[in-house]
Amino acid sequence: MGSLDAPISAENGTAPAAGHGKSPLTDGGMRPPPSDSVPEYELVKRRRSSVLPLEVGTRVMCRWRDGKYHPVKVIERRRVHGCGPNDYEYYVHYTEFNRRLDEWVKLDQLDLESVEAVVDEKVEEKGASGLKMTRHQKRKIDETHVEGHEELDAASLREHEEFTKVKNIATIELGRYEIETWYFSPFPSEYNDCLKLFFCEFCLNFMKRKEQLQRHMKKCDLKHPPGDEIYRSGTLSMFEVDGKKNKVYGQNLCYLAKLFLDHKTLYYDVDLFLFYVLCECDERGCHMVGYFSKEKHSEESYNLACILTLPPYQRKGYGKFLIAFSYELSKKEGKVGTPERPLSDLGLLSYRGYWTRVLLDILKKHKGNISIKELSDMTAIKAEDILTTLQSLELIQYRKGQHVICADPKVLDRHLKAAGRGGLDVDVSKLIWTPYKEQS
Ligand code: ACO
Ligand code: ZN
């Protein structure tokens, strides 16, 4: 993962048109002319209905929210009413876009004349096995994954991957926001029949019904994440939550986060993690904006495991704030750090933007030569990440067996402009924190 499999702007409705428009029936010369005895519309109708219901794995064009047709692959299908071949809805993946845009579509959104004859074998095979699983079996796999009690064999893992292709929870209510989810999250089995979940924005307990949440809110004492407030600047606060001391909160946060994280599995033990929860505070309490998690001890020098800005707060600089915060913690630990891989498309963009800005700001101000090691010491960014960032900006040359940074001020300015906004600043003087120590 980490590759841009979709134009990022697709979410803003600005994805390029998929070049659709030419109907196979009108593109001339490719088919024998229709028989004189059967009218054209009748042939079209027959051809359309002969492909129904569509198989899992079918590739076809689908009308998206921008009103244009885009290529999709059918991931799953379900009956909606009746039992005829037309009575299905399809869960589709837009092959040009990220999986977060996968959705259930109605038959009339699909252009059946564009159905490709060859069904994707791999998907069909996996899809069929996915369909055969009972809810209980699927649930078992997901619970195993969350709790990490058992290792999955390769076949179960494939089944799991197949099952997680279809989003289970469509929307959540959290604080004053109703948020559309992006991906599957393995909620406990009693939530299998829910399309919407209601979260308490403070303790992150989730419920099936609004009335349950309203009752809960009358009793819930929390007005901020459990744990220590380690940073406050203006209305922004950061809380450190120990997964061992606040297990349920940690698990709830993981369930919630998985709705927006694709390639992260939740089969870790929350005990081993610290959660840094960013909040906007007002007189009603501290409202979660985003968070990152961090292993208490990382062999691989990871200083961040998962990062999320909740969708209503995205593109406001909070992501870069969280990234900057993770490096400030590393500096206090006297270590270099790097995010856990794989990075998502948005994660990679955010990190690239952050690394570029931080490194180029230093290069601009610095007089004389500077090495990658020195840059790493100053920023707590791992040397490999510095090298790949500067290489991708073509600021590195290899001379006499050494990497040399070549930084023309004009080129630096151009790159800095392209790197986007700086994000919200972390005021280090407001950070009151000591590195984690195991309590005996
Ligand atoms: N379209 C285009 N560019 C985007 C988009 C988007 N939708 N979202 C973020 N970016 C890029 C931009 O370059 C942006 O900088 P700019 O606004 O100055 O141009 C930069 O990323 C970061 O913007 P921020 O506002 O600082 O970040 P945000 O608060 O939106 O959070 C994050 C970024 C955390 C990656 C968010 O998109 C998110 O939560 N995504 C879902 C979860 C996820 O993918 N997390 C990363 C997984 S990898 C890991 O956990 C190690
Ligand atoms: Zn609560």
Automatic annotation (TrEMBL):
Organism this protein belongs to: Medicago truncatula (Barrel medic)
Gene Ontology annotations of biological process type: DNA repair; regulation of transcription by RNA polymerase II; response to UV-B
PROSITE patterns: MYST_HAT (PS51726)
Protein name as annotated: Histone acetyltransferase
Family: Belongs to the MYST (SAS/MOZ) family.
Acyltransferase listed as a keyword: yes
Documented EC number(s): 2.3.1.48
UniProt cross-references to Gene3D superfamilies, sorted A to Z: 2.30.30.140, 3.40.630.30, N-acetyl transferase-like, Winged helix-like DNA-binding domain superfamily/Winged helix DNA-binding domain
Listed Pfam families: MOZ_SAS, Tudor-knot, zf-MYST
Claim: Cell cycle is one of the keywords in the record: no
GO-annotated molecular function: chromatin binding; histone acetyltransferase activity; transcription coregulator activity; zinc ion binding
Region of interest: Disordered: 1-40
Keywords recorded for this protein, A-Z: Acetylation, Activator, Acyltransferase, Chromatin regulator, Metal-binding, Nucleus, Transcription, Transcription regulation, Transferase, Zinc, Zinc-finger
Catalyzed chemical reaction(s): L-lysyl-[protein] + acetyl-CoA = N(6)-acetyl-L-lysyl-[protein] + CoA + H(+)
Chief location category: nucleus
Domain MYST-type HAT, chain residue ranges per copy: 164-435
Active site per database record: 340 (proton donor/acceptor)
Gene Ontology CC: chromatin; NuA4 histone acetyltransferase complex; nucleus
Gene it is expressed from: 11415198
Subcellular localization(s) per the UniProt record: Nucleus
Lineage: Eukaryota, Viridiplantae, Streptophyta, Embryophyta, Tracheophyta
